[in-house]
Amino acid sequence: MTDGVLLVDKPAGVTSHDVVARIRRGLPKGTKVGHAGTLDPFATGLLLILIGRATRVQRFLMKQPKRYETIARLGYTSTTGDPEGEIRPGNMPGEELELPTGIITQRPPAYSAVKVGGKRAYALARAGEDVEIPEREVLVARFDLEWREYGRAKFVIECSSGTYVRSLIMGLNDAYCVELRRTRIGDFDVADASEERLIGLDDALAFMPAVELDTEDAAKASHGAAVPGHAKGMVRLRDEQGLIALAEPRGGGTLKPVVGFRA
């Protein structure tokens, strides 16, 4: 099997790109390799590495909800929201911490990978330019305090894609992340990380409903033609041989393939 997803437990001190490059070197020349969601160099935890045709479904995997564990230093600020920034004394948050949940408005940190005018925000910030990043709505399903002692606190956060944990912690006034670990992406858990096991595309996309096709419709779908069917969102089109394509609902009770996996 040459197409699928690897669950990697990224260590601190390396970039997500470093992990992709290392894995690419161990694969046949020309194999496409990517990832579904960057982790900062200081962060650890689950990284989804996409091999071969799995790179075609990057956007769907990136939209999956995330779970993080983070340890914050209280009473100090960091220009980057993590240990790599300029650290300064600040105000110690009160005993009753406000931990927002639900749909909230958040501004990504200036030192983030968000693109501003075609350039990465962190590149502009490091060059000394003022960075204005638009606010965005994100969903924080869980924001729990696990413990607090000696000016530090541990939190567990479950949130939508696009949420910046550093911003959540900086919002405690004053605090920053000293450790950050991603423990879950959708149904994938870091406890299952193994570079020896490649998860097939069909299994990796099991969060999408499956529609089974007969031989005639399977042939149509494999060539990108719409097939009869009803769905509320993106679905997997399958037959006895496995995954054919990802399809979205179109008018007239049809499903139109938008990502194909068969030649």
TrEMBL record:
Catalytic activity: uridine(55) in tRNA = pseudouridine(55) in tRNA
Protein's UniProt keywords contain Heme: no
Residue ranges the record marks as coiled coil: none
GO molecular function, one term: tRNA pseudouridine(55) synthase activity
Gene3D superfamilies per UniProt: Pseudouridine synthase
Record-listed E.C. numbers: 5.4.99.25
Domain Pseudouridine synthase II N-terminal: 29-165
Keywords: Isomerase, tRNA processing
Database matches in InterPro entries: PsdUridine_synth_cat_dom_sf (IPR020103), PsdUridine_synth_N (IPR002501), tRNA_psdUridine_synth_TruB (IPR014780)
Catalytic machinery residues: 40 (nucleophile)
Entry's family note: Belongs to the pseudouridine synthase TruB family. Type 1 subfamily.
PANTHER family named among the record's database cross-references: PSEUDOURIDYLATE SYNTHASE TRUB1, TRNA-PSEUDOURIDINE SYNTHASE
Functional description taken from the UniProt entry: Responsible for synthesis of pseudouridine from uracil-55 in the psi GC loop of transfer RNAs.
Protein's name in the database: tRNA pseudouridine synthase B
Annotated source species: Solirubrobacter deserti
Gene (UniProt): truB
